[in-house]
Amino acid sequence: MTQAQNIFRAPDAELSVSPSAATFHSPLSSFGGGALPQRAQPKQLKPFNTQDIKILLLENVNQSGRDILTGQGYQVEFHKSSLPEDQLIEKIRDVHVIGIRSKTKLSEKVLREAKNLLVIGCFCIGTNQVDLEYAAHHGIAVFNSPFANSRSVAELVIAEIIALARQLGDRSNEMHRGTWNKVSNKCWEIRGKTLGIIGYGHIGSQLSVLAEAMGMSVIYYDVVNLMALGTARQVPKLEDLLREADFVTLHVPELPETKNMISATQLNQMKDGAYLINASRGTVVDIPALINAMRSGKIAGAALDVYPSEPRANGDYFINNLNGWEEDLRSLNNIILTPHIGGSTEEAQRAIGVEVGEALVRYINLGITLGSVNMPEVNMRSLTLEEPDHARIIYIHNNVPGVLRKVNEILGNHNVDKQISDSKGDLAYLMADVSDVQTSDLKEIQDALEALSCK
Ligand SMILES: NC(=O)C1=CN([C@@H]2O[C@H](COP(=O)(O)OP(=O)(O)OC[C@H]3O[C@@H](n4cnc5c(N)ncnc54)[C@H](O)[C@@H]3O)[C@@H](O)[C@H]2O)C=CC1
Ligand SMILES: O=C(O)C(=O)COP(=O)(O)O
């Protein structure tokens, strides 16, 4: 069952903080006859101005994003790390907006408590940490930054290819311990070697261009048939890539299909003395199998930036049994271990802060869902200050026949200036600007929509 949400926005909500610029959030109400185990509790009907909006920012979201949100007058609470689940649940109950990065898990269990939550900003690429389906069906939009850190990840991987080929990590560690160990045995140029890219999306394709510029041959495997850049070549099967590549690098999302996609069988299919790089998600590589393959010499080196379990904050966590194999991993030669820093550059974080910060403001103030990963993308010309008795109505509902007719019967008592509706799967998003409407009318419209949603 889809939950319906109505949001009423006054014309100048984006600009003004005066009570006349009130925005209303109606109760969540059920719509349709299906069976959700839990019926969402109603949201409090509350006219608000921008200062009423409460935002919780976790995981050290960049200053650029914080500036955009505080610049709107919203109340912003900022934390450098993620929160333990019990504290997260406690805090999320109270906020309208949450901003996270890759660590904070917004599961159904957590979102069930988020009775006032309107929108989630993932200040990163991945959205696997959020239950997108649950959020959508409870009227909570989710935004991310689809490619602002792609270049940073691609550059890190280029650095790792050379570092692994030249055993740079080991030589550097030895020098730090005072040991001079000048060797050329099993150290290689990368020129003329084959890079196998698994997942040829934003990061994989950017990496392809950089690798070719350095004289590598590029092959890639992807579930989608994608245009090859430069002289790269798509191979039909993962196995083809594994058998041919000197360096294998993973750039796929975390999905049930990508869990342990590199395990003992796939490592065996790789060339003897090949290298493996994973800066995608920790679940994609079976790490105990990698440890075995490196101990046997089958795999000559690896770089890991991501792990199935990662610590919540900075500190000496990698000596503990977070995953159970940290000690074994740390004892291997020619393995570069980094703390999920693929996207951690000043450029990327600043750009992500701006992109997601602006998307949140557009959604909170204007209901615009452009770039949302779980809602239909809807945009409509904003109301202006010259339109004083107008309101913007957002109605998130089940995508079933007859809804628009019923909604328009309700809105028909006013003048509908403009209206747009779009759907994504079983979810639909309607935005309507109505004129000749007073604040008192909004409650009436809301009640009518609520009643409608109960049918
Ligand atoms: N280490 C870090 O700091 C960062 C890690 N990431 C991770 O990298 C991942 C990839 O990022 P993008 O390139 O931006 O994603 P993207 O969505 O642009 O590309 C992913 C590609 O993987 C392909 N794919 C999906 N399932 C596949 C499968 N089973 N087998 C082969 N190909 C498959 C897709 O068709 C797509 O072309 C993200 O999902 C995120 O988890 C992203 C940014 C930073
Ligand atoms: O963008 C992503 O998906 C990443 O993995 C980067 O995550 P982070 O923002 O560093 O927690």
TrEMBL record:
Gene3D superfamilies: 3.30.70.260, NAD(P)-binding Rossmann-like Domain. Belongs to the D-isomer specific 2-hydroxyacid dehydrogenase family. It comes from Daldinia eschscholtzii. The keyword Oxidoreductase applies. It comes from the Eukaryota. Transmembrane segments: none annotated. The keyword Phosphoprotein applies. Pathway: Amino-acid biosynthesis; L-serine biosynthesis; L-serine from 3-phospho-D-glycerate: step 1/3. Keywords: Amino-acid biosynthesis, NAD, Oxidoreductase, Phosphoprotein, Serine biosynthesis. Catalyzes the reversible oxidation of 3-phospho-D-glycerate to 3-phosphonooxypyruvate, the first step of the phosphorylated L-serine biosynthesis pathway. Also catalyzes the reversible oxidation of 2-hydroxyglutarate to 2-oxoglutarate. One of its GO terms (biological process) is L-serine biosynthetic process. Residues 392-455 form the ACT domain. Its EC number is 1.1.1.399, 1.1.1.95. This is 2-oxoglutarate reductase. InterPro entries: ACT-like_dom_sf (IPR045865), ACT_dom (IPR002912), D-2-hydroxyacid_DH (IPR050857), D-isomer_2_OHA_DH_cat_dom (IPR006139), D-isomer_DH_CS (IPR029753), D-isomer_DH_CS1 (IPR029752), D-isomer_DH_NAD-bd (IPR006140), NAD(P)-bd_dom_sf (IPR036291). PANTHER family: D-ISOMER SPECIFIC 2-HYDROXYACID DEHYDROGENASE FAMILY PROTEIN (AFU_ORTHOLOGUE AFUA_6G10090) (PTHR42789).
